[in-house]
Design brief:
By secondary structure, this protein is mostly helical. The chain folds into 2 domains: 72 residues; 113 residues. It has 7 helices and no strands. The termini are close together.
């Protein structure tokens, strides 16, 4: 099964989920309409529609995020193990939250890239290539954050060695950090190769 097919299946599952939530809300509203006055019904209906709209916006945001990741993957030769490693690293760094910020180091985004004013992947990506100027806000864009990670590894780790990639990403971290990333990576491999 290709990534595009998996992405399509995921989108269809999300749409079915949205439809089910909508049907459940309509069922709940129709059940309670006989018990309430028309004005109470209207207020309840408006609140439930607002809640449904907020849920749909959140789900659409997650689908768009996955679309961006899948576009980035499909635009390059797909390396499943490298992708699973990046997933594990992002899981450890940000728990897959593209808006995560470390209040002590100011690292941010999925990969917890350091601000451009400090040494790190963002500054290194700008140093080794001249095509794209990465700024601090790029850390919070999943596609650009991944590009930054890939550029640095292309120049400093062309063989995509996982242990070297971990060290490049966080050279001052102890062995606990490496073990944690590798544990997440092994879990991701276990799940991915079962599909």
């Amino acid at each position: 099964m290709t990534n595009i097919q998996k992405n399509s299946i995921f989108k269809n599952a999300i749409l079915i989920l949205i439809f089910c939530v909508f049907v459940a809300i309509i069922f709940t509203i129709s059940k309670t309409v006989s018990e309430k006055s028309v004005s109470e019904y209207n207020l309840s209906l408006i609140a439930k529609i607002d809640s449904l709209e907020q849920t749909i916006i959140k789900i659409e945001s997650q689908v768009n995020y996955i679309d961006n990741i899948m576009t980035a993957i499909d635009s390059t030769k797909f390396d499943k193990d490298w992708f699973l490693f990046k997933w594990a690293l992002m899981q450890v760094e940000s728990e897959l939250n593209p808006n995560a910020v470390n209040e002590y180091t100011l690292a941010g985004g999925l990969y917890q890239h350091m601000p451009i004013s400090r040494n790190g992947f963002l500054r290194e990506a700008n140093r080794v290539q001249n095509e794209i100027e990465f700024t601090d806000t790029c850390r919070f864009d999943p596609l650009r954050a991944t590009m930054i990670f890939e550029i640095v590894n292309f120049y400093r780790n062309p063989n995509k060695d996982i242990n070297r990639a971990i060290w490049l990403h966080n050279p001052t971290a102890g062995n606990w950090y490496k073990e944690r990333v590798l544990k997440k990576y092994e879990f991701a491999q276990l799940v991915a190769y079962q599909l």
